[in-house]
Design goal:
Elements (H helix, E strand, L loop, with lengths): L1 E7 L5 H16 L3 E4 L2 E5 L3 H13 L6 E7 L1 H5 L24
Length: about 100
């Protein structure tokens, strides 16, 4: 299962830019990989892990802006169509072969 996080955050003031940076750092630290600008994905093993990740997103959400999360199965994610570019151009973990849950 994958979690896709989409966000649109304001960056007009210094404090808003700081909140953007903090949220971006949280996503990276929590295991999300950038699909494209403001779109991140994370591989999770089951619905329980997805729920825990969503709770952490809620705890670390920025005070302003829009943050959305979408759960999709691996089968659904694999059917993504690439209109421009290709999948090989991105360094993305696409397998759970060596995925370890601690």
């Amino acid at each position: 299962m994958r979690l896709l996080v989409f966000f649109d955050l304001p960056v007009e003031s210094a404090s808003q830019r700081k909140e953007y940076r903090l949220f971006h750092k949280f996503l990276i630290k929590d295991g999300y990989l950038m699909i494209q600008e403001s779109v991140y994905a994370k591989l999770v093993v089951n619905d329980g892990a997805a729920g825990a990740s969503i709770m952490r997103l809620r705890k670390n959400r920025p005070p302003e802006g829009l943050v959305q999360v979408l759960k999709v199965t691996e089968k659904q994610f694999a059917t993504m169509d690439y209109i421009t570019g290709n999948r090989e151009a991105y360094d993305e973990v696409d397998t759970m072969e060596e995925f370890v849950v601690l």
